[in-house]
Amino acid sequence: MIVRTLKEAQNSERRIVSEGWESVRLLLKSDGMGFSFHITTIHEGAELELWYKNHLESVYCIEGEGEVETMDDGVVHPIAPGTIYILDKHDRHILRCRRQMTMACVFNPPLHGKEVHDADGAYKLEGEEIRDD
Ligand code: 9YT
Predict the structure, then answer these.
(1) Distance (Å) from CA 96 to ligand 1 centroid
(2) Which of 4, 97, 122, 127 gives the lowest tally of CB atoms within 10 Å of its CB?
(3) Which contacts of 66-75 are long-range, i.e. CB under 8 A and separated by 24 or more positions?
């Protein structure tokens, strides 16, 4: 069994800070579980255009307020505590934060740990072929 705390992970290399968000990656590929698990903070006013071409992601809102728009159809879904959105189709989307949000995020395949978004809003796969559709 592996046991970690958010507090200890926040003070380690597991905390990744980027523009408009930061993420504490509590569980990574190296743990061998087949998915990664992160506690992500989205800062108030952030607008993130994302497209996880290489990953599936589920995002559960613990606190805060915002919305997610699927770019293919322009549908906007409000995000509040208790809401999960599940990017089962590698959906291109825009995440907007009205009040600082805390999210629990799961990625499959798991992240290695240092990923930040590329120009498309994707994370690359290390050592694997990159989808480009
Ligand atoms: C919700 C989302 O995708 N935010 C970007 C950060 C990501 N959750 C991560 O790397 O932990």
Answers:
(1) 13
(2) 127
(3) 66/42, 66/95, 66/96, 66/97, 66/98, 66/99, 66/101, 67/95, 67/96, 67/98, 68/93, 68/94, 68/95, 68/96, 69/93, 69/94, 69/96
Distance 78 CA to ligand 1 centre (A): 17
Q: Which domains does the chain have, with CATH numbers?
A: 34-108 (2.60.120.10)
The ligand 1 atom at the shortest distance from the C-alpha of residue 105 is 8
CB 55 near ligand 1, within 6 Å: no
**For the whole prediction, is pTM greater than 0.85?**
yes
C-beta 40 within 6 A of ligand 1: yes
**Any idea which residue has 């999960």 for tokens?**
84
CB 38, CB 50: distance < 8 Å: no
Above 90 in pLDDT, residue 79?
yes
